[in-house]
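Re-run requested by the PI after the first attempt was lost when the workstation crashed. Everything re-entered from the original request form. Ligand of interest: S-adenosylmethionine.
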Amino acid sequence: MSGHRGDEHRLDYEVVRAYWEDAAHEAESASYMAHEQGLPPGCVEHRFALERAVVDRWFAGLGPTASVLDLGCGAGAWTELFAQRYGRVVGVDASVGMLAAARRRLAGQGNVELVRGDALTVALDGEFQGVLLGGLLMYLDRADAVALLVRLGQLAPRGRIILRESGVRAGVEVQTGTYQVVYRSLQEYEALAAEAALRVVAVERNRGYAHMEIAVALVNLARRWPPLARRDATAVGGPLWRLLRATAPVTLDLVPRAIEAFRLDWPHLTNHFLLLEARD
Ligand SMILES: C[S@@+](CC[C@H](N)C(=O)[O-])C[C@H]1O[C@@H](n2cnc3c(N)ncnc32)[C@H](O)[C@@H]1O
């Protein structure tokens, strides 16, 4: 990973947008960052199922007439789930291509509005009872991330705001190059929420992401071997994911627990859910 430590480096938002336009031809797996290592749809489905358990629990109090905002909706997996449950769902994404994938997925759903725009400035009407940011603050500089959280407090003053963000175990790392992103620690996300006058109600490690990230790290490792580096990523990602699933009690359950117990920094990236609410 080429990049900087600390949050002083500014992201180039044009490069961020260009990345997502480019990734949109494989929008479903790109939404879950499973595309570069050729991980199969089953890996994305596995991660989504585990993540859904957290979101279901935290949105359990939302009734069928609730308005829900999916900011940075990507290919619309969460938008679709919310559309089946709630009265009004708004999905927003800055990428034309990603939003087009969401439109294809959600064709015919009358209670969904899909809007192309920047999360910071897009016009949004009404009050929301639920908001999901599934990997969005990581593409914003610190000041913009705080500004967006302040905005969410105004859009959902009595609602539940869920963040799902990738990060590092300590400090802040900015990745430069064609995939620009800020990886913040959980403590840093808690600090951003406090600055935006939002209360952190709950925090949960993202097990689904941890499982996928083990696969990502192993594919990257395997592809350092020249014969595998020459092969298509899916020829490595597919079999490796099947092997991990077949050995899941050890590779996907015991290994992450041991990593946590021994405080090892592997895989380097982590991911957490945070449940926020506007302060009274
Ligand atoms: C990692 S994907 C997550 C997609 C979706 N939330 C999911 O969980 O499937 C991040 C998405 O955020 C969008 N995005 C990045 N910066 C944005 C911004 N400033 N405003 C709106 N969308 C943005 C990208 O276009 C991309 O579709």
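Saved to the shared folder this time. The chain has eleven helices and ten strands.
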